[in-house]
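Anyone up for a design puzzle?
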């Protein structure tokens, strides 16, 4: 009846569950059509995510999902001195293996998997709040390109958030230069909604109360 959506990611996905977060916006719109599982894990990179993928999306007992959104890479691209850093070749391989796990373990087909790239950052704000973060737009762009390459190779749906957020630079989309504010979350929700909308049937799984009560027949 209800289609099931699995969200995988880091803090951008975990924090999306906040009242004005993109996950909540999606949940509100599709509350009677979609069951959503949020597996956003703040601070995680693809290495740690892959190491624990069996706990994140366990294959036993079988868990089936119709749709999935995968958004990682925001931590992998930090400077090489950081414990969160994942080299580019390993990042691409990890991301591809995570896609395989989703297909094999929970039945999400590549055409129903949306992969989001890392977005650009507000460098000025970020350097003020996190002066030693080791993050830069140059590295974000590199990992965004790697993400797109993996998505295309695996024939998954994809969205280039780096380019999208670059188009909206200066509009105040962040709380700290990296994490999203209300407007930034709204922008992500629009991207995810564009992916979901044609895949979610317009008919509600359960009838409207007016159908049950006979109200609609009286309105005709």
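Challenge accepted. My sequence:
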């Amino acid at each position: 009846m209800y289609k099931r959506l699995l969200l995988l990611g880091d803090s951008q996905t975990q924090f999306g569950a906040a009242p004005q977060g993109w996950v909540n916006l999606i949940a509100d719109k599709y509350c009677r059509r979609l069951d959503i599982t949020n597996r956003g894990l703040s601070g995680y990179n693809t290495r740690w995510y892959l190491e624990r993928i069996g706990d994140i999306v366990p294959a036993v007992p079988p868990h089936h999902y119709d749709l999935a959104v995968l958004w990682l890479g925001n931590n992998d691209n930090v400077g090489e001195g950081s414990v969160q850093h994942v080299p580019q070749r390993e990042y691409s391989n990890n991301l591809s293996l995570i896609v395989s796990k989703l297909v094999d373990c929970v039945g999400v087909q590549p055409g129903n998997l949306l992969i989001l790239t890392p977005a650009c950052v507000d460098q000025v704000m970020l350097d003020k709040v996190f002066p030693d973060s080791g993050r830069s737009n140059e590295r974000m762009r590199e990992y965004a390109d790697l993400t797109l390459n993996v998505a295309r190779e695996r024939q998954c749906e994809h969205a280039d958030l780096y380019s999208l957020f670059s188009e909206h630079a200066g509009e105040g989309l962040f709380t700290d230069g990296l994490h999203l504010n209300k407007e930034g979350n709204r922008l992500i929700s629009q991207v995810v909604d564009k992916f979901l909308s044609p895949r979610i049937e317009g008919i509600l799984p359960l009838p409207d109360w007016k159908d049950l009560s006979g109200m609609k027949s009286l309105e005709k």
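A detail worth pointing out: Residues 124 and 177 are 7 Å apart (CA to CA).
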